[in-house]
Design a protein that fits this description.
Alpha-Beta Plaits; globular; single chain; binds ligand C2E; alpha/beta; Beta-Lactamase; 22 helices; 639 residues; binds calcium ion
Length: 639
């Protein structure tokens, strides 16, 4: 008999007797145990080992569908079919439609056979019995398994057995769905990691990968684990010309060939990356200056011969800039009387890149096809690492820091929903200094706490003004550092009162990496006070997705490096698409940063990204300008 499942309802489970009470309890206990189980297999054995007996059944076998072979496979058992720990005696497989189990799977209905001797579908497994009940396990409209029970008496199974097994089956479905979602998530994570770290044309590591490795190496150098560290930046000569004459396809082909030639010319252990366009970089560590220069020479030689492309043989060459630190120069000061001076080895990756870049331009200017070396010594900028700490203290005490605001807009209406607060340093000699030049330093020197506090106070004051005078639901996003999230003192007393609904938090993976659990709890606390949590620079981290699972998150900010690629590279487009579906599953909003062109805006609108920010709408601006900008925007909307 096929049961019309709609006639069986949870009322068949209503505790009317001692027996039904224990059934209901079993379902509740099973649900709680399933939460802690780590896999579907574990859940099935949990069911057969601990719950079937409570239901008074003689035996039970749970089948799962093997998708590839379209077979129902026995996965867990109670009673005669069980043999030892998590093992089934003589496991059998059934096709769809085969036996009462196969019928149940095919029809997606519970099947109750009161007397198997009269049923044409009955299949004897280990021994013949008198009655059978099969209940399907269904997920997303598809049968994924069957719970099957047989009994030695006729007419044994009743409505409450069906209702109970159906309830247990739907709990298994929940676990199954969660496991599938998790493996989908893992799959997208590895795709994302590949997209984020490798250049699709050359298969070489990309800029992001290079900068991450460089940062890690500079830290090792600072700890004294490396004797030296150097960066070579390589720019191909006449690439634009080849592109213009032979077309982009030839340009791409040339980049692939050049990548291969460079890779073959260097030992595997050296990190070679394609930074973008016709620019490459190599990271050298534990080298002498001579060895680093030899790397440059090897690269020049690698592209010395004509390169044969589909359309023509072409000649190219490289202009290379080399910048490096090594212990011999950094540790100078060792004397005979004091052979091991304590030297603060500081090495700034951004400065190293800038110097290598400068050297590369000098190589171009002085005739191309050469390698020019730049040294850290003698560059003498106004703000060097040596006087930075003092300069920041002066800046704090004499109000040289300024709050700049950049509008955040809703992409469909282009209404301004808030601002991101960005710091600027109006230095009396160096001019307007951007945060990239001092935030990293302030984090290392411990001065970031004072800077964060200053920005929090300024942002809150500005938020109150804008809400009172112009738009009562406007918000301001604060960029916070690791130090803020590690100080619980921040959240109590007068400082704590600065965090209110409307003060949102932007946090990067870097800020939470040291103590994620603590950061998650701090962010949760801020969220409960009304702050929305934005995960910044998303897509650039190594393990962004795993952070998303651990941290409270209201909005994901897609890093601008992906937005700038929209309309040019298929990769950026597929990454943003991936993020859109990820955000949908997670129930979070998406914000695209660095929107510069109308084309990017249209693509993002088409993909359903909710919010955006970028030069297309407005650049970061001082508070008074931002206020006027918002006012003008509001009055335009009114008209
Ligand atoms: P972020 O949080 O990713 O900030 C976005 C950066 O993108 C800003 O750079 C902004 O000026 C820039 N930007 C905005 N629209 C566009 C665009 O359309 N195209 C391009 N190319 N860039 C755009 P900015 O102001 O130089 O800040 C750099 C980083 O410094 C910030 O990155 C943030 O990590 C950090 N930072 C800035 N202000 C603060 C602060 O008050 N506290 C802390 N702890 N960090 C800050
Ligand atoms: Ca930010
Ligand atoms: Ca960002």
């Amino acid at each position: 008999m096929i049961c019309d499942d709609s006639h069986i309802s949870s009322k068949d489970l209503l505790p009317t007797s001692e027996v039904s009470w224990s059934y209901a309890q079993a379902i509740i206990d099973f649900t709680t145990s399933v939460i802690h189980a780590s896999s579907v297999d574990e859940v099935l054995w949990l069911l057969t080992d601990e719950f079937i007996e409570i239901l008074g059944l003689e035996d039970c076998v749970v089948y799962l569908l093997d998708e590839a072979r379209q077979k129902l496979v026995q996965k867990a058992a109670y009673g005669h079919k069980k043999s030892g720990l998590a093992r089934i005696r003589n496991p059998i497989e059934l096709s769809y439609g085969e036996g009462i189990t196969g019928q149940c799977a095919e029809k997606q209905r519970s099947i109750l056979v009161s007397d198997v001797s009269t049923d044409p579908y009955y299949v004897v497994d280990d021994q013949a019995r008198m009655s059978e009940l099969a209940v399907p396990i269904i997920s997303g409209g598809k049968t994924i398994g069957v719970i099957d029970s047989e009994h030695s008496q006729k007419d044994f199974f009743q409505a409450h057995h069906i209702a109970t097994l159906r309830a247990l089956s739907s709990i298994i479905t929940t676990k199954y769905d969660r496991q599938c979602a998790l493996s989908d998530l893992q799959e997208s994570e590895s795709k994302l990691r590949r997209l984020a770290n490798f250049d699709s044309l050359s298969n070489l590591p990309n800029r992001h990968h290079f900068l991450t490795s460089l940062r890690a190496a500079t830290q090792q150098y600072e700890r004294g684990e490396l004797t030296g560290i150097g960066v070579l930046i390589i720019d191909m000569d006449r690439f634009k010309l080849i592109n213009d004459i032979y077309g982009h396809a030839a340009g791409d082909e040339l980049m692939v060939k050049v990548s291969e030639l460079f890779r073959q010319a260097l030992p595997e252990s050296l990190l070679l990356a394609r930074l973008g366009g016709d620019e490459f970089a190599v990271l050298v560590t534990d080298h002498s200056l001579v060895e680093a220069e030899a790397v440059g020479e090897a690269l020049l030689a690698a592209v010395g011969d004509p390169i044969s492309l589909t359309v023509a043989d072409v000649r190219t060459s490289a202009s290379i800039g080399l910048a490096e630190y090594h212990a011999a120069t950094a540790d100078e000061g060792a004397t005979l009387s004091n052979p091991t001076p304590i030297v603060q080895r500081e090495c700034d990756p951004t400065a190293l890149m800038r110097l290598a870049d400068g050297a590369m331009y000098r190589a171009k200017a002085s005739g191309r096809n050469r390698c020019v070396v730049s040294s850290m010594l003698g560059s003498g900028p106004v703000l060097s690492e040596l006087n930075m700490a003092a300069a920041i203290n002066t800046a704090l005490s004499t109000n040289q820091f300024e709050l700049y605001l950049q509008p955040i807009v809703e992409l469909t209406t282009q209404d301004i929903t808030g601002f991101e607060s960005l710091i600027r340093w109006a230095h009396p000699e160096a001019g307007m200094v951007l945060p990239d030049q001092f935030i990293d330093f302030a984090e290392r020197s411990g001065q970031i706490g004072a800077i964060d506090l200053y920005m929090l106070q300024q942002s809150r004051e500005c938020l109150d003004d804008l809400r009172r005078d112009l738009q009562d639901d406007i918000s301001i996003n604060l960029n916070v550092s690791a130090s803020l999230l590690s100080r619980s003192a921040w959240f109590d007393g007068p400082t704590g009162e600065l965090f209110v609904e409307g003060v949102n938090i932007e946090v990067t993976e870097r800020a939470v990496i040291a103590d994620t659990a603590r950061a998650a709890s701090m962010l949760g606390d801020l969220q409960s006070r009304g702050s929305r949590i934005f995960i910044d620079d998303f897509g650039t981290g190594y393990s962004s997705l795993s952070y998303l699972q651990m941290l409270p998150c209201d909005v994901i900010k897609i890093d601008k490096s992906f937005i700038s690629g929209l309309g040019e590279s298929e990769m950026s487009l597929s990454l943003v698409r991936l993020l859109v579906s990820l955000a949908e599953t997670m129930g979070t909003d998406l914000l695209a940063e660095g929107i510069e062109t109308r084309e990017q805006l249209e693509i993002l609108q088409g993909l359903g990204v909710g919010y955006g920010q970028g030069y297309l709408f407005a650049r970061p601006m001082p508070v008074t300008e931002a206020r006027a900008h918002l006012k003008a925007h509001l009055s335009k909307n009114q008209n």
